[in-house]
Structure formats: structure tokens, C-alpha cells
Write a structure and sequence with these properties.
Isopropylmalate Dehydrogenase; eleven-stranded mixed beta sheet; 11 strands; homodimer; 2 domains; globular
Chain lengths: 343, 343
């Protein structure tokens, strides 16, 4: 089990990525740090851990995809970028999974064109785990495909189900379609057509439309949506959380009494807020690509990077790719399409 | 100046609506309480304020539109509903504006078919004021039109500009289109085409695409989007806020020390959170209808109802309808369309 880590991707890379790899030095998988060998070696020397851990190697790559690079251009022009090389290691059989905290659009493009889609997959999807009252909810697509057709959302439901089963050990996961209300007449032309497709699929436990609030209360295990709406949903939730945390901080800074209150409340608040912390999983999944791919937040710290590495390893070991491939192959079969991959 | 208040609409009606009207008893406008006369009179007697205030009258209506009623059916079958009658008072010249905390879909339908659109308006839009770091941001459409065309978003921009100028006294309001990122290649076919239309309109101060986080930081004064995305945006922000407030409460209830902390922090927290309180304005605006219409939250309390009444009165006095009509007429003119309304 070898994971290619894009050591140069992310706002705090390579500090955060190298520290994350070091934090996973006790893991039972190998980590290939992809990026500028000189810079990475320097980071490791600075960490004073007695050199590269036994489960780590470095694969030199000269270029870096920046957050503001256009995905297509990054893929074409920066052929020796750490991000692209990470996917090439998987394509060449030298790695089993990719972890990046870098440009998610470029990761999608590299996944599509360097590694390729799983058989039957029309569109890969970026898949987030959103914290709910009890357990995380699988939401996809949160950004890969802005303009979607109903059959894309149907495939997202199948891939999301496979991920909920393998990654979260849910049995017969409840699937919903994100909408502006739960009544039958709600939704767009897209959500209505997707609802019908998903409801008609006996492989899926469809529970209907879900409003944003239903995601947070855990009314479904898998919530599917187009990548535009999903991205707006995710970014709105993040921005609102950030704003609320700032308001609590401001309140606590507004005088001596509230300041004392804030100090007394802080430890308990930290532990309840930790439930919302995406760092536990380390990032979003790129589902539909023929490689386990974890895309972390650009702002990821070393703990997030270590978690992303462990998540990638576990999903690979638990056979996520086979399950996603199987879910789509079975869905294809009744329509008369040949199974693309021999089972 | 007479405002028709749907006294039976909302989760806490008629308690909240009657109390809201009583709280506005000192206002310099008339309030027509529309709904079951017996129930409303009883509420007023219970309030022990010495009977109906001089600026209030009751208009009897026998039926009530429920939150779960389908808008079309509610309009057709409940012809004597408090909601429909409120709009009929405006259509008949007996009232100048409508305030309801009831079913927003039914309010839209009643506005469209009983009062009618302003000249040139293709689609009315539900318009929210979203709290940002400094001042509220106008966001539309947040629910009236789930499937939109680019020209609808262009009209939303024009109506939103008029509202920002009249209602919020902004000069040359900055207009943005809600999207999944601010780079040129972001967005959907719809947002790209709408961007071009809005950018090409010299009457609008277009500042480009806005991410959800940009709304909360106030990077624009007016943010336009289709009613599906806008509704998901608004409901996600509301659900996230609710979840965060619950987490703070849970933290404060988790032990003696955090409880003390919570007590000391609470007054300051209340005052910072008040900034997010939609009750200040009392609701969303239904723009594009030939009547000032404020649609409050179903859960509105008496303070929200009173604020909604004051907002409606102020917008009517300040000539919002004329400004919205003018904005669209001017936009129509270059295309050769005749001005529908003599100026």
C-alpha cells in the first residue's frame, strides 16, 4: 500500500504536508512525497526527526500547480508538477492512491486524464463528508460538474452509496436529492428527473428530497446534487460557521465579564466544535476515478494531512474502487450495456 | 397609507400577528387585520389594551392558507383566505401594501394573479436581506423561480438595484452573480450568460461573480441568483447558524464551569448575534408585483411582524414600486419595447 502525497499542494505546503507525512510515520503504508526534493529534504531536516522515516520516500518533481491556475492549463503546461506526477505514479503502478491539498480542479483534471475514470462512470464527483447531528453525511457532487444531467445525479447516488457502505459502514444507506423543499412539487427540472431515476432504481434506498437543514440533522446518509449547487451549499455552510465563530470571539472580546465567560466556556466549546471538523477525515473524495483520491482543504494543517493519508489507505484496503465500479456496472447491466470490466 | 396584514398566516398566528399590529399602534399608518373577526377580536380582548387601537381595523375572511398547502390550489380553492383577501384589498384600492408571515409560494401566486406584475417584469423575485459584516446584502431570487433564464437574472439585478437604492439608501450599488468561485471560468451556463447581460448594462455597477463567503463579507450590495440556488443558499446559512447556536448551548450545558462561562458570555453574545437577526426588517420582499409585499418568516414573533409592517410602510412612502418599474422600463427601452406605463 503506497500513497502518493502531493507535497507541494496547499496553502501551507510543504510545511503542512511534510509534517503530515511525519505524523503518519507509524502507519503501515508507504508515503511517496512528490515535489521539490531539495525543499522537502530541508523541511525534514528542520523537523529534527533523524531524517526520512522508513515508510517515506521522495519523488522529485520540479513544478507546482498554484491554487489560481486554470485546471486545463495546469495539466497541459506543468507536466512535471507534483500534482500531476502523483497521479502518474498511480497510472504507472508505483502508487495506489493520491492525497493532495492543492487545486481541486487540477486534481480532477489530472485524475480524469492521467488515471482515467472507472468503467461506466460518466462524470467523477467531488464527495464531501458533512457533519450532521449524529454521523457524517455523504454529499456529492460538491464541485466537479457544474452543469449536470439527471443520469449524472443517478450515478452520484450509486457512487455515494458505495462510499457510505465501505467508508462509513452504513447498511442500505438512505439516499436523498438536495432541493429547496421536500414537497413533491419542489425542485428544478433536474432534481425532479433525477428523483424519478433514483426512485426507480431498486439498488437504491431513496427517501426523497432533502432541504439543507435535513443534511445537518442526518435525515439521509447520501445527498446528491449538481456540482454548482453542492459547491454553493458547502461554501455557504463553511462561511456561515466561520462567521458564527467570529461573532462568538467578538462577543468574548467585548469586555471583562464576557472575556472571563469565554475563557470558562472555551474548552467545552472546542470539543463540541470538533464535531464539525473536517480534519477528522482529512478531505473530500474524488469518486469515479480509477484511483482512491483524497482532496483536502487548501488550508489543511499537518493533522488534516495525516488524516487524509490514513483515510486514503483505509479506503484502498477496504476495496472502495471495486465497490464503486461494481455499483455502476450493475446499474448499467439492465439497460443492455455490456460489463466493461470482467468480474 | 394602509397595510393589509394577513392576520392568520404564520406558525404563531394570530397571536404573533395581532401582537405585532398592537406593537405598531403608535405608527402613522393604518393596519387592516385580515382574518377571522371572532378570533382576532378575542386576541385583542386578551391583550387588555382597551380594544382595537385607532389605526387598526378588521376585515373578516373565513379561510386560512396552511404552510403545507400547494400555492396554486390555495389560491383557487380558498378564495376567502386571509392571504388572498389581503391582496384583493390592494387590487381594489383599499390597501397600499401586504404583509404576511404565511405560505410564501401562495403569497407569490396571489401577488401574481390578484394584483399582477409591474409592467415589463417577467418574473417577480423573493428578495432577502442577508446580514454581512457591515450592512445587509440584497439577495434575489431566494425561492420564487427555480428554473431561470439569463434575462430573469438581469431583471433581478435591476430590481435589486432599485431596492438597494430606495430601501437601503445605497448609491450605485455593486451587483454580483452568486457562483461557485470568482474566476472567469467558474459558474454554470446560466451564470455566465447572466454575467454577460448584467456586465453589458450601463445602468448596473457589475463587480463580477461572488462566492457564498463574499456575501457575508459584503463584497457586493446586490447578489443575484436563480430561485433554487438562492433558496439553498439561504436555507443552508439558516440551518448552519441554528446548528452553531445549538453547539454553543450544548457546550454551555456540559458542566458547571462551562455553564458559568455561558452565563457570563450570554449578554454580549446576544448583542453580537442580534446583528444576524432578520427580525429587524421583518422579512423578505416580493419584488416585481404591483404592491409592496413583505413576506416574513413563518416562525416570526410579534416584533418581526411590527418590523415588517414598518418596513412595508417605509418602502411604500419612499416610492419603491415606481423605482422598480422605472428601472425595468429603462432597461426595456433600448430594445425598442414601448414604455408600458406613462411616466
Amino acid at each position: 500500500m503506497r500513497i502518493a502525497l502531493d507535497a507541494m499542494g496547499g496553502d501551507h505546503a510543504p510545511d503542512s504536508t511534510v509534517a503530515g507525512a511525519l505524523a503518519a510515520a507509524d502507519a503501515d503504508f508507504e508515503i511517496i512525497l512528490v515535489g521539490d526534493e531539495g525543499i522537502i529534504s530541508e523541511q525534514i531536516a528542520d523537523a529534527k526527526v533523524g531524517g526520512l522515516p522508513p515508510n517515506c520516500t521522495i519523488r522529485h518533481a520540479t513544478e507546482v500547480v498554484e491554487m489560481e491556475d486554470s485546471p486545463a492549463a495546469a495539466l497541459r503546461r506543468k507536466r512535471d508538477s507534483s500534482l500531476r506526477v502523483a497521479f502518474e505514479l498511480v497510472a504507472g503502478g508505483q502508487a495506489d492512491a493520491v492525497v493532495t491539498m492543492g487545486n481541486s480542479g487540477a486534481a480532477l483534471a489530472a485524475g480524469m486524464f492521467v488515471v482515467g475514470r472507472l468503467p461506466s462512470v460518466i462524470r467523477p464527483a467531488i464527495t464531501a463528508l458533512v457533519p450532521s447531528r449524529n454521523a457524517p453525511v455523504v454529499v456529492l457532487d460538491v464541485g466537479a460538474n457544474v452543469d449536470c444531467r439527471p443520469e449524472h445525479l443517478h450515478q452520484f447516488a450509486l457512487m455515494g452509496r458505495a462510499f457510505a457502505e465501505v467508508g462509513l459502514r452504513r447498511e442500505s444507506p438512505r439516499v436523498a436529492v438536495l432541493a429547496n423543499g421536500t414537497e413533491d412539487e419542489k425542485g428544478t427540472d433536474l432534481t425532479r428527473a433525477a428523483s424519478q431515476l433514483i426512485d426507480a432504481d431498486p439498488a437504491l434506498n431513496y427517501v426523497g428530497l432533502a432541504e439543507p437543514g435535513d443534511v445537518f440533522t442526518g435525515a439521509a446518509d447520501v445527498v446528491v446534487t449538481d456540482g454548482f449547487t453542492g459547491n454553493v451549499f458547502l461554501k455557504t455552510a463553511e462561511a456561515t460557521s466561520t462567521q458564527m465563530v467570529e461573532l462568538v470571539r467578538e462577543a468574548a472580546a467585548s469586555g471583562v465579564v464576557p472575556k472571563l465567560g469565554g475563557l470558562l466556556l472555551r474548552p467545552a466549546l472546542r470539543s463540541t466544535l470538533a464535531r464539525l471538523d473536517a480534519a477528522e477525515v482529512g478531505g473530500a473524495l474524488l469518486l469515479g476515478i480509477d484511483a482512491i483520491t483524497v482532496i483536502g482543504h487548501g488550508s489543511a494543517d499537518s493533522r488534516s494531512v495525516a488524516n487524509a493519508l490514513r483515510t486514503a489507505a483505509r479506503l484502498h484496503t477496504d476495496g472502495l474502487l471495486d465497490r464503486v465500479g461494481e455499483a455502476l456496472r450493475v446499474a448499467d447491466a439492465p439497460a443492455g450495456a455490456p460489463a466493461v470490466r470482467p468480474s
